[in-house]
Design brief:
The protein is mostly helical. The protein contains 16 helices and no strands.
Length: about 250
Amino acid sequence: MKKGFRVSNLISFNISNHHHHHHNVDSPLMFRLFSSSSSYNNSNRSNGEMAAEEDTRVRPPEDADEIFRKMKETGLIPNAVAMLHGLCSDGLVQDAMKLFGVMRERGSIPEVVIYTAVVEGFCKAQKGDEAIRIFRKMQGNGIVPNAFSYGVIVQGLVKGKWLDDGFEFCLEMVEAGHSPNLATFTGLVSAFCRERRLEAAQIVISKLKDKGFGFDEKGVRDFMEKKGPFSPMVWEAIFGKKSSQML
């Protein structure tokens, strides 16, 4: 079975309807969920007014308002599709179908998609503390992050060099019953090797294993050969000295 097969079936089934139902995208919901009252007020103004104000104020390129404005312009369908595709690619087809069922019934984007999209936006804008705050807010509001949500925050934090936070979320992910996928796992190990050296990376792997994380060595090896090059240190951290010297 092609990995994308189920996804395309799911999405073509009824996703066109969602273009008529931007409840969560065009409404001020996003601003209520994530931002201060000033951001909330911005959602009620036209783009022209906001653009005029942008001209008179020097602002950092990627603050919360900017992230939300971009999301409102593009809509959240691409984020929903990415989540469905990501879940299916990692073999979590049941999770993807359940999520799509919710979308179809309600005709709107589920909150887990919105929160995850905002977390990703903050990670890309190099605002790791905000990404963490939103993730915790999602959990505080009773929205359970799925494997894709965890992958987004772990990879986002690791790329931004918040290694300890990324590692903590990876541990939490495993405790919640999810496995980091190959990109998340190798990205984490690779970053620890680069920034903290071999021993730190080995500690990361052993702590993940202590929490119950297991990986298929052949699968990881194939992934690393395809997506590499990875430094010899990463190979040694994951497979030990013998395996790394076989290369």
